[in-house]
């Protein structure tokens, strides 16, 4: 060995250098998958929200994005701490960034790893406070409406919910309060979305609209009905209808009723189609009673008009053909004093 060393005085030094280089390269090769695996693309996937609140001073990836797959979730503790741009120092300040600009900003701060993020059409960010996004807002509105729908009866379906895409609150402790100025009804309903502090102070107010389909069985004409015709059980059947498009519908109770106007077969009874049957109807025979000081006389008479209890109606005495104004007492008796 000593002879080899003398003949090759530099061999030990070069060998040491090669050893150090090999060790360094091994370290680099072991480190590269951890660093570039995420950067190159296929190790994890994330989704940038369309609205977010950030605390600052730097916007963190975890404040504006969420993991999508298991690989992202496993690395999210590290990924979520990636610092991006500087947040506004004004609490409550809102900034909207369109998708193309957002992509460039993320690329600048994250490099190729930004390609692992799916981007919305725009990102709206508020410094401080909290936000209720569209998904949570819809869930809250439906949860508010559902117990109120029980009072409508039938099968209720909510659709065409028109609401803000998000609601920002200036403080973490502010809460969303949902209310209505009127009772829930079939058709279009307006909802009030209020941001409220714990002591009840309203800090913001927005509105939403929801359409309620209410399907239930309602009375319809079993056959064509004419004006003045009495409504009896055999003339009524039931059909399932959407109350959102049928207003002022008769519920099948009350009466006795007669038709105030004609109604076709299968058409819905509304209250405008009905009127109470008067106690005394034109052409009916009634008992005409004369109440004198010392005499009480009852004879048959024909009603010439219609009237209810306590109302006056003209009747014709069938014996003398004399027309008399009498007061209705009940469905068979009119009185003259």
Number of strands: 22
By secondary-structure content and strand pairing, the structural class works out as alpha+beta
Biggest sheet record: 5 strands, antiparallel
Question: Fraction of residues in helices?
Answer: 10-25%
Mean pLDDT over all positions: 85
How would you briefly describe this protein structure?
The protein has 337 residues and is α+β, with helices and mostly antiparallel strands. The protein is built from six helices and 22 strands.
Protein architecture, described:
The chain has 337 residues and is of the alpha+beta class. 23% of the residues lie in helices and 37% in strands. It is built from 6 helices and 22 strands. The strands form 7 sheets. Strands 10, 12, 13, 14 and 15 form a 5-stranded antiparallel beta sheet that branches. β20 (312-317) and β21 form a beta hairpin. The longest helix has 30 residues, at 11-40. The radius of gyration is 42 Å and the shape is rod-shaped. The termini are far apart. The model is unreliable at 1-41 (pLDDT under 50).
